[in-house]
Design goal:
The structure is a single chain. 52% of the residues lie in helices and 4% in strands. By secondary structure, the chain is mostly helical. The protein has one domain. It has a two-stranded antiparallel sheet with strand order 1-2. Helix 1 packs antiparallel against helix 3. It starts with a helix and ends with a helix.
Length: 134
Amino acid sequence: MKFLDNHFGLNAQSVLARAQRAEILASNIINADTPNYKAKDLDFNEILNQNKNAPTIKPVSLKTSHSNHLSNSLNNAYSLQTKYRIPENASLDGNTVDSHVEKGKFAENAVRYQISLSMLNNRIQGLINTLKGE
């Protein structure tokens, strides 16, 4: 298993981080008109630098005290620090979301997510070809 972590490490981290960032940016867009909502984002470069030497992002284990509690899911299984974005223009209602900026960042993240996914797919295909002896 360690071989797979080392083989896919950075590509897998990138896909997971970009997926989480897409959720955060979508939340910002949805809350563009919510008073006092503060825009959040992930610092992708910081995530990669923090995990440069680690093969994968470490999962967060949650304790449950009741059988009806939900277990970890992909959405909350990775501990990535969100930060508040500094607004370019002040809003009277305290909202720091700029819809145009958020939509641009969401589109850029979507393209980078696709690139990360393609790179991960290439690594997987290369491993499959190696195992087949091609």
